[in-house]
Amino acid sequence: MKYAILIGDGMADYPIEKLGNRTILQAAQTPAMDLIAARGKTGLAKTVPDGFPPGSDVANMSILGYDPATYYSGRAPLEAASMGVALEADDVAFRCNLITIENGKIKDYSSGHISSDEAEILIDTLDSELGRENLRFYPGISYRHLLVAANNLGAETECTPPHDITGEKKDNYLPRGRDGEFFSELIEESMTVLELHPINLKRMQEGKNPANSIWVWGQGYAPKFTAFKELYGKKGAIISAVDLLKGIGIYAGLDVIEVPGATGYLDTNYEGKASAAIEALKTRDLVFVHVEAPDEAGHEGSTEKKMKAVEDFDSRIVAPILKHAEDSDEPFTILVLPDHPTPVSVKTHTRDPIPFAVYRTDKPEPDTVNSFDEESVKKGSMGLVKASDLIGMLVKS
Length: 397
Fold this sequence. Notes:
The protein is an alpha/beta fold. It is built from 14 helices and 13 strands. The chain has an eight-stranded mixed β-sheet, with helices on both faces. Strand 3 and strand 4 form a beta hairpin. The longest helix is centred in the last third of the chain and has 25 residues, at 303-327.
């Protein structure tokens, strides 16, 4: 049996008035996901356990078969693993966004999805100007970077994700609590360093949002995972443009497959990801394919961009992998799902259960559901399940 787990980050949504009070999944053209739902079994999965924030870290950890109650220690340490940054026992890793602040408000959590090349120059400048023995900056991808503080600095600081507070006054959400003043001052210092940087001056001349501040959040210590193969008896791989997902894969002992042109946005290399997944399954039992684009469009509050991202995910990821599975001489199990909703109306993650569909090519067990969306799967035969149990259910069935 081969397994393909296909994750459209943030696909789920709420009904939208201009779509006739339908969700994006209901309104979008998604024939491949609808076919999986019609030929397989469907249900709702709770990816965010009670007491946890509805972040992509928690939700995707659940989907990969790791109960956050046991394994979760924070978002940034997972990204550190992907970036090759080793953490000491008392190191605290923070996500360090490059953001745009205008008139004292957080205008853009992604600095206009700044390029990785531009961002690397800015992060290197910050490390040179503000870094010190116990505080280091590391460049990542686009607006997503890393700050590592030694000696437990910031472990108990209260931080807010910037995508949750777009349009809000910066000063109302600066880090608080223990060490909060230190990190608030660091943010202010970063603004002084970045404001007149040549990269930002050029971006403003081109009408782009400048990366004129950092924002720290999502901190934690290095986690301890049990290897995926030890838990589930399967050799697996993960394909994603996002350091967070790659980091979970590294801690889980999965092979992390890099795809040229994978960006984490609407311009990502969909075909490259699908081809890489099909190739990976020649030598592995299981592959996770993660696409970030629907989530980014949800954070932007764009119905049109999210519709396109969902339709691209269906036609350029799900459809070719489904065709390969059905043409294969080997039996396949395909699981398709989002990790959490990112409704365009609220522009951030919510903790609502998400729709999922499972199709076994050798043993179709259709229920009465014929389309893949938040409402139809409520009639599915699998009911409401704990997401971290899904992988175990699949490999044991």
